[in-house]
Design goal:
single chain, alpha/beta, Aspartate Aminotransferase, domain 1, seven-stranded mixed sheet, 13 helices, 14 strands, 42% helix, binds pyridoxal-5'-phosphate
């Protein structure tokens, strides 16, 4: 008879991460209507706290009612029209996904690629941007498929020089690393609630600058998606609060509580906690022969990609991950695409970025690899 997998899961993969009990509790609150003034006050507060996390004055900062991929679709779908040129920095699977989404919109996509585990080259991005003179430049801040942290300001400045709008994927970085939309010159950014915000999946915090809104307003064709059309979403999430779709009330209660936890801790302490946990993880994993894929200066703190030793590659790594899950309730992520079977992706995101969780994983590995 197979041993029963523990009910409790320690989610140390690329997301979702574990959720604080106060956040789970918030989801059990009795429902309000989405036009109830008391709910709208909570929503207003959530929007204001999201502005703080994104470090932006953008009025149109809101929790989109869908996962991070919808945030990606919202930007590319609102800012691009068929035939528009877009330059996309691809340092992994999520940059690749941006290319797919933009090409479905009918845009003319030029991709600049980086080797897996490395950052995009600023000079190559700038040269391509100068040559293509695109309407939009898009790239990923925290590439969850490789564990790379992309420096933002250089690429954003090159895009601005040719008048392009800059779109940044902050799905994995928001709440774990400083995000400075206004200082960096970002026009549109999206995130997701299930990573460093430590809330359940289902919402995508997004922020549109006035420049991006003006572009969406002056399109010559209608945005391909009615649900994600920012001009329509602005009716509810802007000042007027008129019905567009039914807001996911319980998910917004949860996000509201998650944002209070972040505010109470403070971003500085939170960033430090993520960095300390990642350092302890890397140090502990070295004894099993697992080494970081990414050079120290470009590593993400919340997602560490480690190269597996030869004996654990291929089918062995999937078996070991299953033993961790079924024996200890610990989830870690495997590699994607060309890195499948070669690396693990270990997340210490939001609430989970704690030394005790690092020790739990190391203890389980010690027992399994003894
Ligand atoms: N972008 C990045 C960098 C991600 O890590 C993910 C999800 O892991 C996404 C986009 C897509 O988000 P979601 O799975 O919430 O739709």
């Amino acid at each position: 008879m197979r041993k029963r997998t523990p009910d409790h899961r320690l989610l140390l993969g690329p997301g979702p991460s574990n959720v604080h009990p106060r956040v789970l509790n918030a989801m059990t609150r009795p429902l309000y209507g989405h036009l109830d003034p008391d709910f709208l006050a909570i929503l207003e507060n959530v929007q204001s706290q999201l502005r703080g996390l994104f470090n932006t004055d953008n009025r149109m900062t809101l929790p989109l009612s869908a996962t991070g991929s919808a945030g990606m679709e919202a930007y590319l779908g609102n800012l691009l029209e068929p035939g528009d040129a877009v330059v996309i920095g691809v340092a992994g699977i999520f940059g690749e996904r941006m290319c797919e989404v933009a090409s479905r919109v009918g845009a003319d996509v030029t991709a600049v690629r980086a080797e897996p585990g490395t950052i995009l080259d600023d000079a190559e991005m700038a040269a391509t941007i100068q040559q293509v003179r695109p309407r939009v430049v898009a790239f990923v801040h925290a590439e969850t498929s490789t564990g790379v942290c992309q420096p933002v300001a250089g690429i954003a400045a090159a895009a601005r020089e040719v008048g392009a709008l800059v779109v940044l994927d902050c799905v994995t970085s928001l709440g774990g690393l400083p995000v400075q939309l206004d200082d960096w010159g970002i026009d549109a950014a999206y995130s997701a609630t299930q990573k460093c915000l430590s809330c359940p999946p289902g919402l995508s915090p997004i922020s549109f600058s006035d420049r991006a809104l003006a572009r969406a307003r002056s399109r010559s064709t209608r945005a391909h998606s009615w649900y994600l059309d920012i001009n329509l979403l602005a009716g509810y999430f802007g000042g007027e609060r008129v019905y567009h779709h039914t807001a996911p009330i319980s998910a917004i209660f949860a996000l509201s509580e998650g944002l209070v936890l972040i505010a109470d801790e403070g971003m500085e302490a939170r960033v430090e906690r993520h960095a300390e946990s990642a350092a302890a993880l890397i140090e502990g994993l070295a004894s099993f022969g697992l080494t970081p894929l990414v050079a120290a200066e470009h590593r993400l703190p919340m997602l560490t990609a480690v190269v597996l030793p030869e004996r654990l590659r291929g089918p062995e790594e999937a078996k070991l991950r299953l033993r961790l899950l079924q024996g200890y309730g610990i989830e870690v992520g495997g590699g994607l695409g060309s890195l499948a079977g070669q690396i693990w992706r270990i997340g210490l995101m939001g609430e989970n970025a704690r030394i005790t969780n690092v020790e739990a994983l190391l203890c389980a590995l010690r027992r399994e690899l003894a």
